[in-house]
Amino acid sequence: MTTEPEGNPAESADVRAARAAIEAHLSRTEPGAAGSTGSPDSPEGRDGGRRVDDATAECIAREAWDAVSAATPPPPDPGTDPAPARGARDPEEVTELRRRAIAVTRGLHQLGYHLDETLLPGPDMAAG
Known about the structure:
Layout: H1 13-29, H2 43-46, H3 54-71, H4 92-110
Helix pairs in contact: 1-4, 3-4
């Protein structure tokens, strides 16, 4: 599959989030200033020659969930905190990262990428 320009008003917010995550991933991992392979006049150059396969899409989804895990504080230690706060909520940063990870994985799925089912948000939130 190839990346396509953003901005299609018919696309869902999840698809736009997935495209943004793909672009960010490609800009970090591909050589060259913009990650482009091919001249603008070649057929490959029109879309930057960038192809994203299922393995890359899975890596992008995993990165989104890893960001959630990295920002999530560890659970309270019963030995040092005998009465954890009832109804304690995740910090706002974690909540936003979780929303983004859900949007990215749903968007990748909507774009037709096949992801490991543990990465897909579901009723039991296996990924989160």
